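Complex record, two chains
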Amino acid sequence: MIIIAPFAKPLINGNRNPKNYPYWDKLIELTNEKIVQVGVEGEEQLVYDFRKNLSLADLRKLISECRIWIGCDSFFQHLAWDCKKPGIVLWSVSDPLIYGHPENINLLKSRDYLADNQFLWWDFTKYNPDAFMKPEEVIKYIL
Amino acid sequence: MQSNKILCSVATRGRYTTTLPLVLMAIANQTASPDKLVIFDDNDNPEDMRENPIYQHIFQILDYKKIAWEWLFADKKGQHHIHQKANEMGYEWVWRVDDDAIPEANVLEQLCSYIDTTVGAIGGSILTLPHIFNTSKSTGKIKDIDSEPNIQWGNINVTKEVEHLHCSFLYRAGIHDYNLGLSRVAHREETLFTYGIYQKGYKVLTVPNAITWHLKAEGGIRSETKQEMYAHDEVIFRNIVGLSNSTIVVLNSGFGDHIVFSHVLPEISNPVVFTCYPEIVQGRSIAEAQALFGDIDQWNIYKKMAGWNWKGSLEDAYRKLYL
């Protein structure tokens, strides 16, 4: 079983979070394994099994049961790291050398896309789907 | 001079025509010059002193001696805001000089002679005639602050490691923030600031042969008379000093940040934690931290990382902030 944690928290100004991966549908299509999505109420459902608003304890239990997890740069990558369960993080504008954990597979297309200022709110960083690695590349790390 | 990046910072209010010109001349006449002098003008009705003949001479002398200088108009929020600006101007050291404190010509050179990697702040005597105290037995420790004369109020004969300084001193920039939660009078601001440097593990020194004459002219940055401002600042001071044996931790950040921090927490000695997510890191509320300490930005990990131009991990940034 694979866990996906697709979304970082919504931005205050309502803009699309530049850390959210744009190609989930294709990546899910390429994945031939049971997928459980975790997240919170209001997020888009991407797979049949979407578990919302789980407690920390339930999330930790689920993480312990998965083969691998995939997410963006959100709290989930830190929680899974805390659970000592390596996974895949799909990066774009935030710097994995600062916010990532070397125990994970950190997929960053290019450091050229990193935001100049890593320490401000993400509300005013423009969304750029080109900043992410394509699903055909990502799937190689999942299989 | 062991460092070539020294900023001299003067905050002034109400002393255009009394002690400020004396202070600026004293700075111009130092045996070791600062790399730059910045005058932060906090007057309610600022004037262009380039029209004043005395100041014209002083500015010419500074130019002649190749001391870069700048006159900035401040925000009228108090000298702690001014000094924080100086603290963030990118210099290695800041020599802060009050606008009624006249340093003898050797002061900066003498303070600089104590610079090394272990030192965070260095101060000399600040003498206010006719009240010269015998401070030879003063410890300069924060626990004795209510029971002894300030060690800088007397002639300093030997170098001593202390825990706080006042008035004018040289400090290593960027390692501790001024508490911007204090009122405009900024009561205790320099004590809190230098004590913070001490708590970061740097030596705070009082040294001999570096005398500054405190003329205590009318006006000044603390010319406010509202007693409630002093009371407000005193409460913040007492709250922080009351936790002097602890490490204050304020986690005003995201859920994931708390998880990362939780891996650093065991390394921190005697932590007192204020937290947004007690289910991750137990502690007291952020609102309480705000009420106790006035300003909690000094623990803002993102502001810190920005200031440090941080390239390392978030986990190591927490270590730098708290260990």
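Note: Residues 36 and 68 of chain B are 5 Å apart (CA to CA).
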